[in-house]
Amino acid sequence: xxxxxxxxxxxxxxxxxxxxxxxxxxxxxxxxxxxxxxxxxxxxxxxxxxxxxxxxxxxxxxxxxxxxxxxxxxxxxxxxxxxxxxxxxxxxxxxxxxxxxxxxxxxxxxxxxxxxxxxxxxxxxxxxxxxxxxxxxxxxxxxxxxxxxxxxxxxxxxxxxxxxxxxxxxxxxxxxxxxxxxxxxxxxxxxxxxxxxxxxxxxxxxxxxxxxxxxxxxxxxxxxxxxxxxxxxxxxxxxxxxxxxxxxxxxxxxxxxxxxxxxxxxxxxxxxxxxxxxxxxxxxxxxxxxxxxxxxxxxxxxxxxxxxxxxxxxxxxxxxxxxxxxxxxxxxxxxxxxxxxxxxxxxxxxxxxxxxxxxxxxxxxxxxxxxxxxxxxxxxxxxxxxxxxxxxxxxxxxxxxxxxxxxxxxxxxxxxxxxxxxxxxxxxxxxxxxxxxxxxxxxxxxxxxxxxxxxxxxxxxxxxxxxxxxxxxxxxxxxxxxxxxxxxxxxxxxxxxxxxxxxxxxxxxxxxxxxxxxxxxxxxxxxxxxxxxxxxxxxxxxxxxxxxxxxxxxxxxxxxxxxxxxxxxxxxxxxxxxxxxxxxxxxxxxxxxxxxxxxxxxxxxxxxxxxxxxxxxxxxxxxxxxxxxxxxxxxxxxxxxxxxxxxxxxxxxxxxxxxxxxxxxxxxxxxxxxxxxxxxxxxxxxxxxxxxxxxxxxxxxxxxxxxxxxxxxxxxxxxxxxxxxxxxxxxxxxxxxxxxxxxxxxxxxxxxxxxxxxxxxxxxxxxxxxxxxxxxxxxxxxxxxxxxxxxxxxxxxxxxxxxxxxx
Length: 807
Prior knowledge:
The protein has 807 residues and is mainly alpha-helical. Among the domains are: 83 residues, 2-Layer Sandwich (Phosphorylase Kinase, domain 1); 175 residues, Transferase(Phosphotransferase) domain 1 (Transferase(Phosphotransferase), domain 1), CATH 1.10.510.10; 52 residues, no CATH class; 105 residues, no CATH class. Helices cover 44% and strands 6% of the residues. It contains 29 helices and ten strands. Helix 11 packs antiparallel against helix 12, helix 17 runs antiparallel to helix 26 and helix 20 packs antiparallel against helix 21. The termini are far apart. 35% of the residues are buried. About 25% of the residues have low confidence.
């Protein structure tokens, strides 16, 4: 059997890079970059080649190998692995850069900030304090060459080659024999008499003073240059002078030096140092302290170095969420640090945490995620959105908290482009139908309409045909005035998605009914929309060859570019109602009322007002709703709707608070709608297309009234009675107020074939009358049968005990 000698260097799990060695510090070691063979993670490798006749240097290198392997401290160079053979010594540490090279590179990029230098020196002094006070060791080599910087910008103390015990057990300090290192020795070492009184840390503190001088002024030419402070900050000068004093007895202990520098107004008393110190002790901090720290951290991250945020703050944030139950407070700083990451790093570090957060039941966590979704949505792929995120997000549509429902609706603007066919065209539409029809909060109904208009271009052609006209028609009958405006703007923003037949038979009749709306803002937008659609119809009527061009998007597949003005219309409703919703939450923190409740109707104009509803201090003026005047001359082009986002929508939040809740008769009359389809096939009701949806989520549900109109409480006035800041004073009245259908003195007539989507013929009324007669006959028959049974039972009387029942 043959035995072959194995090469330990070849079997070593780390390999040196092909790049030339970095600027190695003075001494026996040569610093190389390297990587771990198994994972490819970067490391630094200190290499010493054993040379014949250099036994003293070999012993120094072996001593450094032993010291670095046994000393563990956050501020001392971290040992990972090592290799010792007869020919060489390898020490593998974390990936670091010599301090001299690091300062030079940063100086070319603009230089280090004073707070970064203060924290770096803090780490070096803390390492010295650990060695002297805890280990009883003298470093004996503190200088620029003995300090290294990791990827997070943390300073690490290395260069343990000439370390010795403070008790003198190993025969005193070893001889260096290198002039570049001996120039940092204190002057008292030249006195061999031993009569100079000194402390065990005196020599290292002198060398620390030399290091401080070099950090701010560059390489030290000679010891006499220490007398000139140069660029050393004024807050550090008094403490620096103590280090380089001629009397070694008065040089402070490293622990006391740190204490002096952290005093109020001193060099190391700043936010950056405080943040680092908290992060080092975060595991032992109380939960309340962690919450406060993470809340304040986001404000400071802008002034912190990018490398520090990526490699030190980010791991602590991830750890705090995974194991510390930090909750939603980590989200803001987490996403702020995420901006410094590459796309690949974001996928590896942030996205798994975000996906896990969406499954949380913590409301604060969910609403923070929804509010900040735009910061990470671009890193989410479609399978992740559809399988791991959307199923959790849709629960927000059913939440009792209005703020969560509102943010869930807004988040659909970002999620819609990534949703699959089923989630977008089926699941999401069911929730939108329920919200628009049944939600008791006007701003949420309004936002649902706005969101539907913005994502309309992503819907399939069949879904667009079935949903958009019906949804926007329903919005135009909402008692909340901004919702009616949103419905009109929704028609205009998606004008290119409707056929000319739908424009003439479905959309224009709905818009025409709004020309007598009590709110002036609704009337103005309705007139503008009508002119736009009429211009479109007129252009095709004059030139029928334009029909194909006008209807090119009607049956086209979903595309984000087809939405026309949908990309920017009614932006107020998506971004400006959050504070209003928060007010609603504070004013009404309990669960919402049942869906069967009917809002109160306002009183007629002549009704006495005993307790008028307060008007906001800054009422919304109608000029905010007014648009720029039309160009007179040529007819308007069909693309006029693309300019409707020029409105000033910022005041809608105020109007949303002051508009009184008003309600129409929302009876949709399903049977009558079906009959109307038979008699008028070209004029079917917009809501009739939704008959296939489930009852709970259909657009046909929600606005129906099963009870007769209730009398309006005293003190309620029509919205048109208030002075909304328009050009005419309120005492003149609104000429359209008399046309309001929200009167409680008499029921709303149903005979108008153009009102409230009543497209049925006369046959419908006869059917309803016959059904009513049949129902009454059945009721009378039931009462007669019950009376006969009661009479028969009373005639026989109660049965006696033991009597035999005879038929």
